[in-house]
Amino acid sequence: MLEINLGPIKIGKNHPCFIVAEAGANHDGDFNKAKQLVDAAAETKASAIKFQHYTAGKLASKEAKRYWFVHGDAQGYQFDPNTYKESQIETFNKIDGIPRDKDAELIAYATKKGIATFSTPFDFESVDHLDSLGTPMFKIASGDLTYHDFLRYVSSKGKPVILSTGAATMEEIHAAVRVIKSTGNNQIILLHCTLAYPTPLEHANLRMMKNLEQEFPDCLIGLSDHTPGVEADVAAAMLGAVMIEKHFTHTPGHAAGDDKVGDSPDHDIGIGKKEFTELVRRVRENESKKIGVAFGLSYQAAVAKIEQGKFPQVLGSSASKDIDSKVELKARAQARRSVVAGRMIKGGTVITQVMLGDGTFVVKRPGTGIPPYAISTLIGKVIKNDVTADTVLISDHFV
């Protein structure tokens, strides 16, 4: 049976659920706030705290629009793929991360506090940086599931890979897993995820975890959760999730005026220390009482127990892992990546193999153009007209 070892921590079906406080960029670029998040997460008894490493200009092009809900948006805004507001890069430029030379100090601080720490990198440089610091594992976001070159690079480091599967088809997940395994890395945790910020409780669709387990018997299965509260997380642990990732902040919910913490969009969907402590307590209590499939309870019995509880809607109506067309389409388009012009390309330019690696093309959000895994199909094609830098490329740009 697959088991992942992180020093004293073991992740697998025969071990306590690995509960991750996803701090993301909720430090708002402030090192002291990052330490405060570590303090708070350690006090909740979470297994680990996770951050995110990215550079705004490498992650999003000028065409990438915000797809997450913030206070003041019209009802249903985040689910309408035809409605866009400000660009992603406006937000990401404000929270571009704590200084890289402080990361080693932050990891040491977390170790002193008795909590593991790792991160989600969004570019190759961040992967190398985290690897140089001895990160125990890597998390890859749902939006990068089709960025096969990136998956390959991360996996080649030989560390366990956690891959979120939000807004993905089963075919896309299989393709991503094949890429990871092609590097010889078989340490894979797949996280069921509904890519909506926040996710309505009735769209948690936890039954899809079982489908992932059936399709990928040699991978561990968990949950990356964006629902309000902790009910979906407690239920997922009962159903056998070996890992739960939940957004975490020191100021949960909307804050304004003097109470406003910062500009990270994850403050609004993150839960705070009190609620996260309750999440950990309830999961551990169920484990001690052997309430869950990891402790001998049948899957059918676990489902029945959830159905008899106060929030049966977390199970969802479909047992097949797929895109939730009611809530994920906008995020799928804007959180994924496309091939983007890295600089101005003159009309009449013939695309060569060399150009694929010399900066002529980059891979950024949104996912409305040519997908990253198809970049090699551009070789031999000709640019019709001049294309400006940071333009998402589509088939109409070529002849």
Task: Please describe what this structure looks like.
By secondary structure, the protein is an alpha/beta fold. It folds into two domains: 4-330, Alpha-Beta Barrel (TIM Barrel), CATH 3.20.20; 337-397, Type Iii Antifreeze Protein Isoform Hplc 12 (Alpha-Beta Complex), CATH 3.90.1210. 28% of the residues lie in helices and 14% in strands. It has twelve helices and twelve strands. The chain has helices spanning 31-44, 56-59, 88-92, 103-112, 124-132, 148-155, 170-181, 208-215, 231-238, 273-288, 299-307, 329-335, and strands at residues 4-6, 9-11, 18-24, 48-53, 116-121, 138-140, 161-164, 188-193, 220-225, 243-247, 338-341, 361-364. An eight-stranded parallel beta sheet has the order 5-4-3-10-9-8-7-6. Helix 8 links the parallel strand 8 (188-193) and strand 9. Helix 6 packs parallel to helix 7 (170-181) and helix 9 (231-238) runs parallel beside helix 10 (273-288). It is globular and about 70 Å long.
